[in-house]
Design a protein that fits this description.
269 residues; three-stranded antiparallel β-sheet; 17% strand; FAD/NAD(P)-binding domain; alpha+beta
Length: 269
Amino acid sequence: MRETVKFYPSLREETIRVVVVHPGKFLLPELGEELGRYAERKLGERKVEIIKGARVAGYDGSVVKLTDGTSIPATTLIWTAGVKPSAAIESLDYKKERGRLLVNEYLAVPGVRGLWAAGDCAAVPDGYETRDFFPTTAQHGLREGIRAAKNIEAAIVGRPLKPFVFTTLGQLATIGRRTGVAMVFGFKFSGFIAWAMWRSIYLAKLPGLDKKLRVMMDWTLDLLFGREIVQMITLRDIQALSDRLARIRAQTKRGSKEQTSLATNIRSS
């Protein structure tokens, strides 16, 4: 964001403020404290402010309010709340864990015959790796779906069920400027090599050779000529801007009414 300021004479870098709010003690807890602290340090070097131990309590279109009482003026709010189970799960009157159906090691809901769950809708116990629950990532969800399907088939034909067993392959994250963090098979990586690993895995997961070539070409041009700062405006962007302006007008109108009411009371007294 700061690199694009030089293309806009009316903007100054001092007017740009980026704040990351995280409820934990360090960023990226899934990757461990060491890599989380590394990510914080790199973001801090780029003048990104980090507030830890707090959550977003509200946003009125111009001010973000945190649970610790902090108020942050902001016209842009990016919310990353994680994965949420399907709304259909809420109506089911069965035991849940963090909004997800609690299942056993066979991905079946205990006490309910014929009810199975996997992926984002299921809290799958991990009794050997973390002794908590498996994370709701793609690598786990895909394999849970396969195991659930095979256990359903086994239950129909009368074969023994098999538990879901899987060791996390690894987790990666990019933190911008060709820098990343990664935990793969227990080994920690950071910096450019972690960023390259993240891009390689992302590229490998893309379906179709044509998409892989398009993305690879775009990334190569990005390395040679820098990032493209032009953005295409969509109808969704226009709607979002209209909603924001409507909120600002409503706040201004409400503030004017309050001032008028206060002035009236003063004259009356």
